[in-house]
Every structure is written in structure tokens, then in C-alpha cells.
Design brief:
Blueprint: H1 2-33, H2 43-51, E1 54-60, H3 65-80, E2 84-88, H4 93-98, E3 106-111, E4 114-120, H5 125-131
Parallel strand pairs: 1-2
Antiparallel strand pairs: 1-3, 3-4
């Protein structure tokens, strides 16, 4: 009985460590994009970002629970500010791949042709406030 319990604890512990490790890997890869030139983004979003001095690209998926809370706010922000883009990765996977998005929700901030911020999860309120005007 104790052996089964120990194996169960080991499996659960291993899965927990795997999840934490993947989360850290995704965040580390996202941070590696900061300061890099803006990737070559296909389609109208890429054209708009190339022309704009700055932009905020929010990536979501309809199946993402956290995205359901954030997406309505980001859609409202994109209606007020045309340099904010809301991208459903199930419809525009090529844009997500070009911007190296590995998880949703993710937001990429562009300024002067460079990636200045990559945010996995909730968008910091100061970044959102910069694009609210």
C-alpha cells in the first residue's frame, strides 16, 4: 500500500515539476524576443505594424480560460486604438508563429520596429494604459 502511495506522489510531483518547467521555458523564450527586430509578420497585421511606430498584438484562443476574461477588454481597446491588434491563433496561426507565440494569452509590444515587451498571461496595467489613449 505504501509503495502505491509513494509511486502516486512521485507521479504527481513529476507532473507538477513538468508543468512548472514548461511554464518557465515559455516565459524564458518570450523574454528572449525582447530587444530583437520585429519579426516578419504576414498579412494585414504585419503591414499595419510595419507602418505604425508602435503596436500591441494580443494573442488568444477561444479554448483558453484566462483568455475569456481578458479578450473582451482587449477587443474594446483595439476598437479605440488602431495600433492594438487582437489575434485569434486558431484563425491566424501564421501570425502567432511569426511572432514566436508559444502560449495564450500572450501580448507582444512593438516600438520603432523592435519587440520591446512580451507578456505571457495577464497584461500589466501600465502597458494597457499606454495603449488606452
Amino acid at each position: 500500500m505504501q509503495t502505491v502511495l509513494m509511486v502516486g506522489v512521485a507521479v504527481i510531483g513529476g507532473m507538477f515539476l513538468l508543468m512548472v518547467g514548461l511554464n518557465l521555458l515559455i516565459r524564458w523564450k518570450a523574454r528572449a524576443l525582447e530587444g530583437q527586430p520585429m519579426p516578419d509578420v504576414p498579412g494585414p497585421i504585419g503591414e499595419s505594424l510595419s507602418k505604425a511606430g508602435r503596436g500591441l498584438v494580443y494573442f488568444f484562443s477561444p479554448q483558453c480560460g484566462a483568455c475569456r476574461a481578458i479578450t473582451p477588454r482587449m477587443k474594446a481597446l483595439s476598437e479605440k486604438n488602431h495600433s492594438v491588434f487582437v489575434v485569434d491563433i486558431t484563425k491566424h496561426l501564421e501570425v502567432a508563429r511569426a511572432m514566436h507565440v508559444l502560449a495564450t494569452p500572450s501580448t507582444v509590444e512593438i516600438a520603432d520596429g523592435k519587440v520591446v515587451g512580451v507578456h505571457v498571461g495577464m497584461l500589466p496595467s501600465d502597458v494597457e494604459a499606454r495603449f488606452a489613449t
